[in-house]
Amino acid sequence: MQRTRLSTLIDDLGDQLRLWLINPWRRISLVLISLLLGYYFAVAIAAIAGQAAAQDVVISLFLVIAAEFVNWLVYSRRWRDPELLKKVPKPLWVDCINSFKLGAVYALAVEAFKLGS
């Protein structure tokens, strides 16, 4: 690929973002925002699917498949290997996706308790 001004600008912005995210407080805040977005997403999906009541089973299937895929990605062997984690830390996007999933599963459980009572 050629080294153009646009590719140089994108590379520099990526480097600056990577340096900005090294701060642990910023990392924690992004993970917390992902958790809250997951909660909001699940409440919205539950409200939309519950209102229509036509595709409940299909939507549930997609949500379970997505949650299992995230589990497979986050808890796979490569992220649990202590020797590998000493060399390369777990990427931020993996933590954010897992946090989003946790928020969504928690929200769906809360919605189930609300419907059951």
The rounded Rg comes to 19 Å
Number of domains: 1
The poorly predicted ranges are: none
Spatial shape: elongated
Mean pLDDT: 84
Helical proportion? over 70%
Order of helices and strands: HHHHHH
N- and C-termini, Cα separation:
60 Å
> What is the helix tally?
6
Proportion of residues in β-strands: under 5%
SS class: mainly alpha
Describe this structure in words.
The chain has one domain (23-116). The chain has 117 residues and is mainly α. Helices cover 85% and strands 0% of the residues. It is elongated.
What layout of secondary structure does this protein have?
Elements: H1 5-20, H2 24-52, H3 56-74, H4 77-80, H5 82-87, H6 92-116
Helix pairs in contact: 2-6, 3-6
Task: Give structural attributes.
single chain, 117 residues, mainly alpha
Provide a brief overview of the structure:
The protein is built from 6 helices and no strands. It is mostly helical. α2 (24-52) packs parallel to α6 (92-116) and α3 (56-74) runs antiparallel to α6 (92-116).
